Amino acid sequence: MEVYQAIRSRRTGRDYKPDPIPQELIKKILQCARWSPSSSNTQKWSFIAIQNLDTLSELGNICKQGPFVGPNTICRGSSDGRCTEATVRRWTSNTEFWNSWPGLRA
Fold first, then answer.
1. Which of 14, 31, 52, 78 has the highest CB neighbour count under 10 A?
2. Structural domain tally of the chain?
3. Is residue 71 part of a domain?
4. Which pLDDT tens digit goes with each residue over 33-65?
């Protein structure tokens, strides 16, 4: 598949199955993520696989509240280095659907 075709045919899924994700698939996905590109090739990856729905729901609630302070803040997503209050509100508004991801156990 060509890059252009891959970009144009990409879709965002928002309906998730309630089935648990098999451990082997989780490992395979995390292995692929480990090889993905990073800023300045730093590759400082750290992954946590959350399989408990209560923990996932609690994390979603925490993300809605902020503030985001630490080495990997939400503001790092701002390519121009600016992080306005409106931008943070827009990004954090997308976290509320975490609580409705019954099939997301990775």
1. 78
2. 1
3. yes
4. 888 887 777 777 778 788 888 888 887 777 777
